[in-house]
Structures are given as structure tokens and as C-alpha cells.
Specification:
By secondary structure, the protein is an all-alpha fold. The chain is built from 4 helices and no strands.
Length: about 110
């Protein structure tokens, strides 16, 4: 059996705990808001780099893509494989298709 929490970054659990606490405490809310904004800005920058290099569709919002990535990352922290898992190959195939769909339109403008 797999050890609980193995191969997982413990910071993910702390972020989740911080987000839960942020619902009850305004000071924690401000800290988490800043933390998440910093991560979203970093991810948005990476997405814009991909858009500038024509690897990601420039018509898509970099902020919206960053939000999607944050939501998936936080969701994976909330639902670790020892609670619910999916076949690695199937999960990988889904993520590959999802990421590929963010690329520029291969059919050109309509």
C-alpha cells in the first residue's frame, strides 16, 4: 500500500489549509490572496511567453489559463491519489489533450 502523502509536496497541503483558514480569518485571507496572486502572475507570465512563442493561442486569456492551472493544482492537493486515484496513463492522456487544445488553431482563421 502506498504511504499516505508520499511523493507529494507538503506545501500543497499548507496552501489548502491556508485557503480554508482564509474563509474564517481576514488576516489569513489577505495573506492567501497575495500568495495566490503571486502564483497567478507567475503562471500568467509563463503563458504569455508561450503565446509570444506561438505555442499557446494568443486569443486565449493568459490569466484564465493561469487560473485553470491553479484550480487543477489546488484540486490535486485536495484529492491526493491515496484518497482517489485514476489510471496514470488515462490521466496523462487527458492532460495532454487539454494542454494541446490551448495551442494555436491549426486550421487557420475562418
Amino acid at each position: 500500500s502506498r504511504r499516505r502523502g508520499s511523493r507529494r509536496d507538503p506545501r500543497g497541503a499548507l496552501v489548502v489549509e491556508g485557503l480554508v483558514a482564509a474563509r474564517r480569518d481576514e488576516d489569513v485571507h489577505r495573506l492567501m490572496q497575495t500568495y495566490i496572486a503571486e502564483r497567478a502572475d507567475w503562471l500568467s507570465g509563463l503563458v504569455r511567453t508561450g503565446q509570444n512563442e506561438k505555442g499557446i493561442d494568443g486569443e486565449l486569456s493568459a490569466e484564465a489559463i493561469a487560473h485553470l492551472f491553479l484550480v487543477v493544482a489546488l484540486g490535486s492537493a485536495l484529492l491526493p491519489p491515496d484518497i482517489h486515484s485514476v489510471n496514470r496513463a488515462e490521466w496523462g492522456a487527458l492532460l495532454t489533450r487539454l494542454i494541446a487544445s490551448l495551442g494555436p488553431d491549426q486550421q487557420g482563421p475562418s
